[in-house]
């Protein structure tokens, strides 16, 4: 693999994962505040699942690109 491409992919993975982690942290804090109703908490739980799936797909995509690029 070309070094610049590897560096780019790594930075992209780390940056995107950090965004996902920050979303999960905000959702967790909102759930602990108890100032929101159950409907919002259910929606947060759904968004959490989608965020985790998205992060997993990003990591899988990174691995596939490392294996089959250049």
Note the gap between the termini.
Answer: 5 Å
What can be said about the biggest beta sheet?
A: none
Q: What is the mean pLDDT?
A: 85
Proportion of helical residues? over 70%
* Inertia-based shape: elongated
- Give Rg in angstroms: 16 Å
Secondary-structure content class? mainly alpha
Number of DSSP helices?
2
Element string (H = helix, E = strand) = HH
Task: Pick out the low-confidence regions.
Answer: none
Which strand-content bin applies to the residues? Answer: under 5%
Number of strands: 0
Task: Give a topology summary.
Elements: H1 3-33, H2 38-68
Features:
single chain, 70 residues, 2 helices, mainly alpha
Structure characterization notes:
The protein has two helices and no strands. It has helices spanning 3-33, 38-68. Helix content is 89%, strand content 0%. α1 runs antiparallel to α2. It is elongated and about 50 Å long. It has 70 residues and is an all-alpha fold. It starts with a helix and ends with a helix.
In short:
The chain is mostly helical and 70 residues long. Helices cover 89% and strands 0% of the residues. The chain has two helices and no strands.
